[in-house]
Design goal:
The structure holds 2 protein chains of 2 kinds. Chain A is an alpha+beta fold. Chain A has 2 helices and 4 strands. Chain A has a 4-stranded antiparallel sheet, with helices on one face. Classes of the chains: A alpha+beta, B alpha/beta.
């Protein structure tokens, strides 16, 4: 699958929690290896559909999950930029 | 070991047994389908481990009403949590105000600092039977000149009596003093909303009332707390930095986590969420009343702790007149298969405060899985021991 957005994190704990938060909010989200272009901080990132970006931001804010940044990237399930 | 005709476990205050069935299932599932190191790698076994540990943290945060899962730090036991809290908060020259009912997991780190001239320790007398302590004295000591840290147990591990930690916490907050709570005997047994306790840090074991495996514990750290970590090292996060992350929980969780224990603890937390800690407490109270009812009319039994088991965390301390508590514990185990704990319970200060040092007491402690039949076996056995002692018969073979 191709994804249009990536959330990067400081800690994998927050990546795991974000995946649950987004999926519970009914959004498609998947843990992917963090693309090198995004952040070296934590090994994993959460990929999502860019059309959902406002809802992603809102869901993470509501759940008060700490994240580093939200990025616009076309990536695949392996976190590779396509 | 003599002939044992029972298997009655009344040592839940040391560690709970048995664990809910979901605990073992979660551990098996973890080894089968996860098993990688949490937060360290991107492969499926590491991700699966991270997911289950993260979910366990969330389940525990919901159960204990922490504001965020980030406020819960995994430790190996309550003692580690108390050491992180005490050593991380007490600055050189501080006064530490505590109670007379503390366990050595509080007293030993405090005495360690005191012996090195780094702090002074002031213990406010707390009644081991009623849990009462002089709140005016507590407040006055907190408000005296100089930096101060307050430490109190939520319940005595000797008598089970619950202390008014909320009132203690309010006075500490009003005085601007960090407040550390030892919830070793109450977590999972007494309803506890971490975010409403007014505490800077709350330490608890995962393996007692929270029903998880040994080797698990939790330290709640309030979001605004200024707490130095006890150890530093790899966290899997900010690997490019040679300095410790400044955010929780990574700041306090260096080194590989006890993933297998934590997922067991998470399963136990899910079980407690389903049955509810309010109901556990009601059940423990009911069982405590049965103990009292069945032993209450027996001359020769001396009770310690609150008369109303609702004010206890599921503990009863007793002595049999004329029989050392260690002998009573051995007889209970040898002849009836009843597991209890005798002695000072790592709490010499509490026993001195209660007037039961140096011999200590026999501690019976139960959990939500304890049955009426268990209590009947234990109380009948105690009755027999009392009757032997009163008849001046040998109560048992010498230890």
């Amino acid at each position: 699958m191709k994804w249009g957005g990536v959330v990067s994190f400081y800690a994998s704990e927050h990546a795991m929690r974000s995946e649950r938060v987004l999926q519970r909010a009914g959004l498609q989200a998947r843990l992917v290896p963090g693309p090198r272009e995004v952040s070296p901080n934590c090994g994993v990132a959460v990929a999502f559909d860019w059309d959902d970006e406002p809802r992603v931001e809102q869901a993470l804010a509501d759940a008060r999950v700490r994240y580093e940044a939200i990025h616009r990237f076309d990536i695949d399930d392996d976190g590779k930029i396509v | 070991m003599g002939a044992v005709n029972g298997d009655v476990y009344l040592d839940h205050a040391a560690t709970s047994w048995p664990k809910p069935p979901g605990v073992l299932a979660a551990i098996e599932e973890y080894f089968a389908n996860a098993g990688g190191n949490t937060g360290r790698s991107g492969h499926r076994r590491s991700i699966a481990a991270s997911r289950t540990v993260s979910l366990a943290r969330e389940t525990l945060a919901d159960l204990l009403a922490a504001e965020s899962p980030d406020d819960l730090v995994f430790t190996k036991n309550a003692t580690e949590g108390l050491n992180v809290a005490i050593l991380g908060l007490v600055r050189d020259g501080a006064r530490v105000v505590t109670t007379s009912l503390e366990h050595n997991s509080v007293m030993r780190p405090l005495r360690y600092l005191e012996e090195r001239g780094r702090c002074t320790v002031e213990a406010v007398h707390a009644d081991g039977n009623t849990g009462e302590l002089d709140l005016d004295e507590w407040e006055a000591r907190l408000r005296a000149a100089g930096p101060c840290v307050a430490v109190a147990t939520h319940a005595s591990n000797v008598t089970g009596v619950v202390l008014p930690v909320r009132a203690l916490g309010e006075l500490a907050a009003a005085a601007g003093v960090p407040f550390v709570v030892d919830a070793s005997q109450t977590a999972g047994h007494v309803p506890l909303a971490l975010s409403e306790l007014g505490a800077t840090a709350v330490a608890m074991p995962g393996h007692k009332g929270l029903l998880g495996p040994t080797g698990t514990g939790l330290l709640y750290v309030a979001p605004d707390a200024e707490l130095e970590p006890l150890i530093r090292g790899g966290t899997g996060s900010q690997s490019e930095l040679e300095t410790q992350p400044d955010f929780a929980p990574d700041r306090y969780e260096s080194g590989t986590l006890n993933g297998v224990g934590i997922v067991g603890l998470g399963a136990a937390a899910a079980y407690l969420t389903e049955i509810g800690i309010e109901r556990v407490h009601a059940r423990l109270t009911e069982l405590g009343r049965r103990f009292r009812d069945r032993l209450g009319d027996l001359p020769g039994i001396i009770f310690y702790g609150p008369a109303d088991p609702a004010e206890s965390s599921g503990i009863l301390s007793v002595n049999v007149a004329g029989v050392p508590c260690a002998t009573v514990a051995r007889l209970l185990d040898d002849e009836w298969g009843v597991a209890t704990r005798a002695g000072l319970h790592c709490s010499p200060a509490a026993h001195r405060s209660l007037g039961t040092a140096p011999d200590g007491t026999l501690r019976l402690s139960w959990g939500e899985s304890t049955t009426e039949a268990d209590i009947d076996v234990a109380t009948d056995a105690l009755r027999t021991i009392v009757e032997r002692a009163r008849a001046a018969e040998p109560v048992g073979t010498p230890a």
